[in-house]
Design a protein that fits this description.
The chain has 369 residues and is α/β, with parallel strands linked by helices. The chain is 43% helix and 13% strand. It is built from 14 helices and ten strands. Bound molecules: iron/sulfur cluster. The site of iron/sulfur cluster has 13 residues, from loops.
Length: 369
């Protein structure tokens, strides 16, 4: 296959097929991929602004029946160190978040068998009552599938009830690799590929903003990475016009430290900086209908994140106060608001503080965060 032809096709925003994607991923020189991806970044986000935000990650509970083999964070029901976050703790954490200038909570897992939909509804309602300007970026497709089965409701009904209670946007959590072969090994109890996609399809119909993710670098093949990206692109292409759909795509590498995948199956993370840059560039090239590509500075660190900004990415995400899941498996690149902006400037861009919908916000944060 002629690489030049594929570059031209990509630059004209013509969707590439699986074989074309595999060819680019496998054979294109990295500097050429970066060049094309960077040009496409300018098509989708002209100018020099790189987005970043302040939010806080709070884990609703660490009890999870799923026991994914890459997760060090979860505990089984009845574990001594199992917890469900109390209202008092939320208040302390949200007060801290507001003091630092942020107003969004990323509320994540696990799937605790003792918590039903009324728990989430009551929690969202009470947090919104206490903090009317709070934004809740919460749960993810696996939790929606789980709640739908538990409550015998449709995905639409579960999402609608949660939106009514205060859910503002749905993270693309639990996508890992959208291949049932891979999912049977890394997260066998979690939503299947079709279930994950169907939840997102319903969220898009309800115009609930969502993100798309990928956790790669474990047992998947290059073909499966490409299929994952094309499944996201195909779903985005059928979202109702003018609805948010997937606002962004974020890929991060598997963190292997202490995981069952490493200890029991000897699977190490295949992460390398050059491969991450290739992954970011390919995401920009294949996802021709998703506007924002975010680099995961928390997992890849400062230098590779800076390079990602020249490879198709236009966002560095959040300073993520109190992230617990990937940090539990070795990801420890923490930056405060000041450092985040300096990194963006050092890479040659203008920091643009934004909200979860990727709208720029003007208020200046407490930069000593
Ligand atoms: S990754 Fe999420 S769903 Fe999987 S075991 Fe951990 S907390 Fe549960």
């Amino acid at each position: 296959m002629d690489l030049e032809q594929l570059y031209l096709k990509a630059l004209r925003l013509v969707p590439l097929n699986k074989e074309e994607g595999i060819t680019l991923y496998t054979y294109a020189p990295i500097e050429e991929l970066m060049f094309i991806a960077n040009k496409l970044r300018q098509v989708h986000n002209p100018g020099n602004i790189v987005g970043w935000m302040i939010d806080r990650n709070v884990n609703l509970t660490n009890i999870c029946f799923s026991q994914c083999t890459f997760c060090n964070f979860c505990r089984k029901k009845g574990s001594e160190d199992g917890y469900v976050t109390s209202t008092k703790d939320y208040i302390t954490k949200i007060d801290e978040l507001y003091l630092l200038g942020g107003n969004q909570l990323l509320l994540q897992g696990g799937m605790n068998p003792d918590l039903d939909i009324s728990f989430y509804i009551d929690l969202f309602k009470s947090l919104k009552k206490l903090y009317p300007s709070l934004k809740l970026h919460a749960l993810g497709p696996p939790e929606i599938v789980y709640l739908a089965k538990k409550e015998r409701l449709s995905y639409e009904d579960v999402l609608f009830k949660l939106m009514e209670a205060g859910l503002d946007s749905l993270p693309g959590a639990g996508a890992e690799i959208l291949s049932d072969r891979v999912r049977k090994i890394v997260s066998p109890a979690k939503a299947t590929t079709a279930e994950w996609l169907n939840v997102m399809k319903e969220a898009h119909k309800l115009n609930l903003p969502t993100s798309a993710t990928m956790m790669y670098g474990h047992i998947e093949t290059i073909e499966e990475r490409i299929e994952h990206l094309l499944l996201l692109r195909d779903l985005q292409s059928v979202k109702p016009e003018n609805h948010y759909g997937f606002i962004t795509f974020i890929a991060w590498p598997f963190q292997d430290e202490g995981t069952v995948l490493l200890k029991k199956h000897g699977i190490r993370s295949s992460y390398s900086g050059p491969d991450y840059i290739r992954m970011i560039s390919m995401s920009r090239i294949l996802l021709n209908n998703i506007r924002n590509i975010q680099a995961s500075i928390l997992t890849v660190g400062r230098e590779i994140a800076m390079l990602s900004l020249h490879s198709g990415s236009n966002d560095l995400g959040s300073i993520m106060i109190e992230e617990n899941v990937v940090s539990a498996a070795g990801a420890n690149n923490r930056f405060n608001a000041n450092e985040m902006q300096l990194i963006i400037k050092e890479a040659g861009f203008i920091p643009g503080r934004r909200n979860q919908k990727y709208e720029l916000v003007n208020s200046s944060p407490n930069t000593s965060v």
